[in-house]
Amino acid sequence: MGLLLKKGGNASSNTPAELNDSGDGRRNNATAMRRDYSGGLIVVSGISSLFGSKGGNFRSQFRLLCIASNSFTTTHTFSPLLRQCIDERWFPGIKTIQAQMLKSGFPIQLSGSKLVDAGLKCGEIGYARKVFDEMRERHIVTWNSLIAYFIKHRRSKEAVEVYRLMITSNVSPDEYTLSSVFKAFSDLGLEKEAQRSHGLAVVLGLEVSNVFVGSALVDMYVKFGKTREAKLVLDRVEEKDVVLITALVVGYSQKGEDAEAVKAFRSMLVEGVQPNEYTYASVLISCGNLKDISYGKLIHGLMIKSGFDSALGSQTSLLTMYLRCCLVDDSLCIFKCIEYPNEVTWTSLVSGLVLNGREEMALTEFRKMMCDSVKPNSFTLSSALRGCSNLAMFEEGRQIHGIVLKYGLDRDKYAGSGLIDLYGKCGCSDMARSVFDTLSEVDVISLNTMIYSYAQNGFGHEALELFERMMNLGLQANDVTVLSVLLACNNSGLVDEGCEFFESFRKGKVVLTNDHYACMVDMLGRAGRLDEAEMLINEVVNPDLVLWRTLLSACKIHRNVEMAERLKRKILEIAPGDEGTLILMSNLYASTGKWNRVIEMKSDMRGMKLKKSPAMSWVEVDRETHTFMAGDLFSHPNSEQILETLEELIKKAKDLGYAEDKSCVFQDMEESAKERSLHQHSEKLAIAFAVWRNVGGSIRILKNLRVCVDCHSWIKIVSRVIKREIICRDSKRFHHFRDGSCSCRDYW
DNA sequence: GTAGGGTTAG
Prior knowledge:
Layout: H1 2-7, H2 30-36, H3 41-51, H4 58-67, H5 75-87, H6 91-103, H7 112-121, H8 125-134, H9 140-152, H10 156-168, H11 175-188, H12 191-203, H13 206-209, H14 211-223, H15 227-236, H16 242-254, H17 258-270, H18 277-290, H19 293-306, H20 312-324, H21 328-337, H22 343-355, H23 359-371, H24 378-390, H25 394-406, H26 413-425, H27 429-438, H28 444-456, H29 460-472, H30 479-491, H31 495-507, H32 514-526, H33 530-539, H34 545-557, H35 561-574, H36 579-591, H37 595-607, E1 616-621, E2 624-629, H38 639-655, H39 671-679, H40 682-692, E3 699-703, H41 709-721, E4 726-729, E5 734-738, E6 741-742
Parallel strand pairs: 3-4
Antiparallel strand pairs: 1-2, 1-3, 4-5, 5-6
Helix pairs in contact: 3-4, 5-6, 5-7, 7-8, 7-9, 9-10, 9-11, 10-11, 11-12, 11-14, 14-15, 14-16, 15-16, 16-17, 16-18, 17-18, 18-19, 18-20, 20-21, 20-22, 21-22, 22-23, 22-24, 23-24, 24-25, 24-26, 25-26, 26-27, 26-28, 27-28, 28-29, 28-30, 29-30, 30-31, 30-32, 32-33, 32-34, 33-34, 34-35, 34-36, ...
This protein binds one DNA strand of 10 nucleotides through helix 7, helix 9, helix 11, helix 14 and helix 16.
């Protein structure tokens, strides 16, 4: 095309600067123009023949036309040119035409609609808006196009502004306007204004007659959380289609009304509307939530039959469904069949595996994803982090923290909460706090996570301070907040404060569950206020096993055999042969020296084929997790070194005043055997291993049961012997052992 | 000429 211009010689001085665009015309030539349009064609073909060009692309023709700009005399001349420029998304050409129009004295209104359309299609919103504002009168399509552009680009505020301008300009919205503007209302939470516009849709009869308007309304009410309203709208729409019904299925599914989602899906089949991949994607999630694997499989079948099983979105939902139904193997089968999993698919896999307690596998898959160069998002990272925090994999978690930083997601609330959770569950409240302090947005969830981290680590005052901040920010506490606050009081021995909070929570908006009561029962029980704790349970409408068992374990702590036996009868009525209860009773009898009763309990348990789950501890060394079981002295390849180190540690501890606490042995045996059994507790083995391997920094132990009194006092002294912090996460809370004392202040 | 629905999370 440059050649042609050169041929034109001095004519290039007539060419506006914009024409120096080097973009290629994608299609079209003079012939096509001749066929399509009538106005400019004479001029174009005239010039073509003048230069003897055989076709050539549109842009070169256009340049020639501009050279002969005196031919721009009527709107007919440039109208087809403009259309061509729009088709080609060629913005410089559009601006040239506008300039020519102005030069020829045409008012902009004449082609305003087209120019706005052109600006929007070329993504030149500033230009489009300027032309729009200069127009005295606008066609409804122009209004709609501008609104639609803003919606499409998630600029809801501007969309609503234009819509309001439309109303104040006395232009009546039509089905196109309404079907897009509702999305902006839900996005901005403008419920009142949305209702007014809904009213307008009703008056115009569009709610019933136009399925686009109906779907937009359904979607909007769903996003406002008003599924009931959404359903009412749907019922009124005359001709229901797949999008309309899917919008409702999605709505129910996202609001956790899973049974309703499945019901809406069924109604779709009954009405003979064919579901598509969007529908399947949502209804499968609800099946997963309901753990309704039979209906899930039925839908899987339907998908295969209708060929929608190959779309990535629906495959991801299938994967999620199988994982939520705990069918790990089936889900792995699905995953294997997916050719190009995207980050959502991978995230679904990682989070689902964590959900099923398959953390190791989850992290392996996460690493595979990284090897495949699929970029993780904040969802992926928070799932992987949860895997680490479940197993207290500190080093692994720190590696993922590195990835979080690499992708600049450290200020993101999802990834951030994952990190807070990780550090909290690894006993590093200060690291959790520094992550929390860098978050760009503090919300209820990140606050809850931080409060919970403090709570489980026994930093009650810090937790309560944050709770106060939450209140000052005007954020609404939820059930997790309440639990975290109560736990904070519980783990820090702040019993009076805990009771006060509980009273105020009772009057608050959050519906208290058995978990909240269990926390209070534990708090009162451990403080020895057993009667108060029992009274509290009696206030609960449906007291469950956990509540009674919590009180029973308080009886064990305070060796209240009489109350314990009464509770035991009560519990065994609700749950005959409850394992936890029998173990607690057996331990209580043991600690009070009632060995005959212990033997009775043990034979009861044997009769019911119940076995105590073994005490286990884990410790991570060089990113490898080592498992230790109480009494198992030989499985570990380094048993010899471990026992040697352990012996040394026990000796040094004894020098500093450690003595075995034999009340922790729940078996009737010789005194020396009791001592031996204490020495073989899993946390002692794990610590000895970590000491032998000379772990740098703090030693972190994870334990499946509660730390016993003997181990607790031993670890305290060992922390002084080795001059190292030992952090132990047991089944209930954290213990930070440092220089001879523990963060729990011996209250746990 | 302009319009409506999804899958991963603490």
